[in-house]
């Protein structure tokens, strides 16, 4: 029997107002996110593929890493040094799925680190087939007057520059059948005033995806994006006021925030041969909030 999408996971009435220091940790969330540990079943869609996922320690990145591993891929993740505990858990989930796992701590605001990530993945696995540009930074502010140049730089370098650097570094290793998957957002279409810089970066990601797909299509390399709506990840209590965390996701037609486990199959689809005629596109997962 199919699950009722409105009640499959906890709604806002079960989300207590809560805060964490950035970047946030899964174990401190109430309720904890679902990464698909008990539900995702692979069918070999990514057998022997080699994937690099930024921000793979928690949130959407961890769910994608788990799903990729259960589909037969070896997975390397990037993470901040402060996220080491969560990163070890993601690697454990990948290894428990019978695949190789690797990780490298550092800040993707640094171009050299982005190149090192790609080099490390190739050294560990012998190549690279799937790049998932997923890591992001946001911080809610009441007004543009409150957004410092330091914050604006951090948002753009983490969300946009790193995607550019990583894609550029990965390209020499990608072959026909490879994929780049970027995480954009509903914010690219419906920018929230309190996330002005973040929304700007997500619109840039969408445009970058469409442009790069035109270049790489003739090489047999596909480039697509996923546009999540409100998803229950550590980024939320770490970057938003506690009262907004308590009502997070209530404004969707389904009445709740999405879970990372509900996003992972979209990334699997875009990385697999099920989507070989799809490139330069975005798939929304917004709980019913319409995208143009």
Percentage of residues assigned to helices: 25-40%
Name the average pLDDT.
93
The global form is globular
- Strands of the biggest beta sheet: in what spatial order? 3-2-1-4-5-6-7
How many helices? The count is 8
- Are there runs of 5+ residues with pLDDT below 50, and where? none
Ends distance: 32 Å
Q: Describe the largest sheet.
A: 7 strands, parallel
From the helix content, strand content and strand pairing, which structural class follows? alpha/beta
Taken in chain order, the helices and strands follow as EHEHEHEHEHEHHHE
Please tell me how large the radius of gyration is: 18 Å
* Secondary structure tally: strands: 7
Strand-residue proportion: 5-15%
Q: Could you give a quick summary of the protein structure above?
A:
The chain has 292 residues and is α/β, with parallel strands linked by helices. 36% of the residues lie in helices and 12% in strands.
